[in-house]
Amino acid sequence: PQTIYLKDYRPFAYIVDDVHLTFKLADTATRVISRTSFRPNTDFPGEFFLHGQDIKLISAKVDGVEVSPKVTSEGLTCDVPDKPFVWEAEVEISPSTNTALEGLYMSGGMYCTQCEAEGFRKITFYPDRPDVMSVFTVRVEGDYPVLLSNGNPVASGNGWAEWHDPWPKPAYLFALVAGNLVAHPSSFTTMSGKDVDLNIYVRPGSDEDKCAFGMEALKRSMKWDEDVYGREYDLDIFNIVAVDDFNMGAMENKGLNVFNSSCVLASPETSTDANFERIEAIIAHEYFHNWTGNRITCRDWFQLCLKEGLTVFRDQQYTGDQGSHAVKRIEDAITLRSRQFREDGGPLAHPVRPESFIEINNFYTITVYEKGAEIIGMLKRLVGDTEYYNALDLYFKRHDGDAATIEDWLQVFEDSTGRDLTQFKRWYSQAGTPRVTVTDDFRDGSYTLNFAQETPPTPGQDEKHAQVIPLAVGLLSENGDEVVPTTVLEMTESTQSFTFDGLATKPVPSILRDFSAPVILQRQQTSAERAFLMAHDTDPFNKWDAGDALAMDVLKQIVTKDAAPDAAYLDGVAAIMRDDSLDPAFRSLAVSQPSESEVAQALHDAGTTPDPLAIYHASEALKLAVAQHMQDILPLIMAQYTVDGPYSPDAKSAGKRSLARAALGMLTRLDGGAAAAKTFAEADNMTMQLAGLAGLRMIGKGEDQSQAFRKQWRDDRLVMDKWFGLTVSLAAPENAAQTAIMMTQEPDFDMKNPNRFRAVFGALAGNSAGFHDASGASYTLLGEWLAKLDAINPQTTARMTAAFETWPRYDADRQAKMRAALETLGATSGLSRDTGEMVGRMLG
Ligand code: B3K
Ligand code: ZN
Question: Nearest ligand to the C-alpha of residue 283?
């Protein structure tokens, strides 16, 4: 397979003025008729090449005259005149056999599309690249009550509908949906007074009652983008469709967002608090793409972070505004540190803007998305809020309608703030997580912080250069008063010192407040110092982080020295648990522990080979010790934070439930499951029902409840995904593989449905001790199922291979077994380009 390089970018040799598409829908033989106006791009003359894959060309014409293009497996070339001309083609495709879920496919009886990144070429011959933008007019013919495409509806009749999208767009934003669907309608009046029709489309039946929350979230997002970024919606209609079979969360097609059902449908009985929060964030994210992604798109796929990093940053801001910024920042940091740092430290590490790829779908990663968002956050911190929003105004003004680059983005900031961002740009090109080491010094009232930064080598990048690191720092006095409020130190050198004068006594530093940069902070700190910050830091992120670091120390001590849990930690968490003045959501995060995978990473970073089973036992031991240490208050907290009255998913109620659930988890380790069984039996919402069930499963009980749950929810596929997932993720380590096998034998296991496949095998990979069971059974099992899935759905398969990316962390035996599973997968005949690339990168 061919590797594509950023340095080879060249504009397309033709410009597309408009495109007309007609779809005659039929399950195995849909006809797509296209009429496209091209004119030569005189600045960049070249071959007339149209992408096309797995499509049958029926006929083609240039200016009305039949032609015979040269067709290959990637597309076609054709002789065309050296002046504007009209290209016409009729092709045939088979949506019902399209199990890759890319292009036009069928899900639960409806037609839908997924074109990003390069799926449009499976629909018709076209320059399927994001820098070719055009105005689309679409006619859909099919015997369905609902026929949708992008833009505004033009006309419709029995069995047909026409749509026109006035905004030029790249093909990856094209969408079509057809089916027997029902709308949950509403409307929104924009800031300039235009009325927009809003719809969430679902299949008739129980889903109809699960649209209300998503609709309100959409309206909140539309309003927020007006209030905070001054961005107004630009069509008469905005449609969302829920689809059961979907490779990812959702897709921002212009005016017609397509969602994985799990990311839009919600009800108190069937969705957890975490589901509600995620649904709201994804609806916001896709909506925000209308400006950051659609109105301004990417020149080429290497610039993916231009739209994704910025849009994630915007959805994070939005979620913070809906609830608590501190809590959201902690949640985002947990995600970044547990998953992005892991990617950045392993064989799949790549820059936020990669420089080459074989299959672009493999680069929709946590690095591009979440580290991409961190870069925006650092930029905002460095230039300040006012300058940030000024720069964004200029970005929208200057680049509206463009297919832009990271250079364009940074230029906007340079022009509007006068800053030189040459060094800052390294965040986009350099992979790996910088380590920042700190020492300090106090003399004659002057306090100095000495920093050193170093980024370890990553694949293809042996040498690293110093990056610009915003370090938000505050200083506390011994009694916990803040003597120097948060100040952003701008580190640009490999080693750099900053001095604070006029201090009476040596202060306690609080460094990297609000997680001001995606780096690993390394410093010598006693448990007493950590406990002090846990108790006194005025920065909520660092207050949480001090506890997290302390818990990590304790876990490492238990694993490596079989030490007893440190009293400073136990007293510290108990104090937070008891402190009613703190936000319950914050408290529940503060009493949680680093994940087993994070502990493994930390041990590996410190030069110790992690033993997953020992980490599992240490983690269980610490949870038990914490529970015992505060056993007197657990029932009280559960009672105090039980939310009465009808369920509401708002951040405040969810925060209370989250603290009650944390207390329940602890209590379950002490009472043999009595409280969990009671919670399960009495719950009137999924959050608490699942918390009860999870508690029981965690201590190896709850078989009856599990069966009752299954029976109660057997007709609800989204709840059943939770059941599949929970069963595997809470299986005892030695039973994990066997449990996953049993799940695949359940009658409602369907490997073609990505949600169901992920529920089982994502959970297996996430059951750290179970996945890394010394027998290697889970490695083999996952490898075998991925080989089977690859023939059906390469994209989902390739994504899930990342479960193996941690192989270099482990002992020789596990390494050999993980590599063997990858090698067997890699040797599968007919392996997709997607999976082949991932396996190749992991094996090095
Ligand atoms: N842009 C899509 C992701 C497309 C993934 C293609 N493999 C959803 C999003 O980021 O909003
Ligand atoms: Zn996105």
Answer: 1
Which residue's alpha carbon is nearest to atom 2 within ligand 1?
Answer: 251
Q: What local confidence, expressed as pLDDT, does residue 801 receive? A: 99
Q: How many Å apart are CA 498 and CA 511, to the nearest integer?
A: 12
Indicate whether residue 308 lines ligand 1 (CB < 6 A). Answer: yes
Return the exposure string of 774-808: e unless at least 16 CB atoms fall within 10 Å of the residue's CB, then b.
Answer: eebbbbebbbebbbebbebbbbbbbbbbbbbbbbe
Measured CA to CA, the distance from residue 823 to residue 494 in angstroms comes to 40
The CATH class of the 297-429 domain is mainly alpha
SS3 590: helix
How far apart (Å, rounded) are the C-alpha atoms in residues 773 and 737?
9
Which residues are within 5 Å of ligand 2 (an ion), measured at CB? 308, 311
The CA angle 486-491-493, to the nearest 5 degrees, is 165
Measured CA to CA, the distance from residue 440 to residue 498 in angstroms comes to 10
Q: Tell me the average pLDDT of the chain.
A: 98
Cα separation, 179 vs 330, in Å, equals: 42
| Strand pairing report for 85-93 and 30-40 | antiparallel
For the chain, how far is it from start to end, CA to CA, in angstroms?
Answer: 16
pLDDT given for residue 378 in this prediction? 99
Record the tokens describing residue 294, joined without a space: 């659609």
Instruction: Quick: pLDDT tens for 27-62.
Output: 999 999 999 999 999 999 999 999 999 999 999 999
**Token pair listed for 629:** 């240490």
Is pTM beyond 0.95? Reply is yes
C-alpha span between 565 and 545 (Å, rounded): 18
ipTM of this complex prediction, to 2 decimal places: 0.99
Ranges assigned E (strand) in 338-457: 356-357, 403-404, 435-443, 446-454
- The contacts of residue 182 (CB under 8 Å, 6+ apart) are 201, 202, 203, 204, 208
Report pLDDT digits (tens) over 517-533.
999 999 999 999 999 99
Q: What local confidence, expressed as pLDDT, does residue 822 receive?
A: 99
**Class for domain 4-264, per CATH?**
mainly beta
Question: What confidence score (pLDDT) does residue 62 get?
Answer: 98
Q: Point out the catalytic residue in the list 277, 286, 308, 370.
A: 286
Q: Are 709 and 722 in contact (CB under 8 A)?
A: no
Over residues 612-670, the pLDDT tens digits come to 999 999 999 999 999 999 999 999 999 999 999 999 999 999 999 999 999 999 999 99
Provide the pLDDT for residue 1.
87
Q: CA–CA separation, 728 vs 741, rounded Å?
A: 10
Quick one: how far is CA 12 from the chain centroid?
Answer: 31
Cβ neighbours of 479 (radius 10 Å) = 7
Q: Average pLDDT of 599-622?
A: 97
Tell how far the Cα of 102 is from the centroid of ligand 2, in angstroms. 17
Ligand 1 atom nearest to CA at 250: 8
Contact between 284 and 224 (Cβ < 8 Å): yes
Q: What count of other Cβ atoms lies within 10 Å of the Cβ of residue 64? A: 8
pLDDT at 439 over 90: yes
- How many whole angstroms from 436 Cα to the centroid of ligand 2? 30
Domain boundaries, the chain: 4-264, 297-429
Indicate whether residue 248 lines ligand 1 (CB < 6 A): yes
195-202/237-243 β-pairing: parallel
CB 587 within 8 A of CB 579: yes
Determine the Cα–Cα distance for residues 511 and 539; give it in Å rounded to an integer: 10
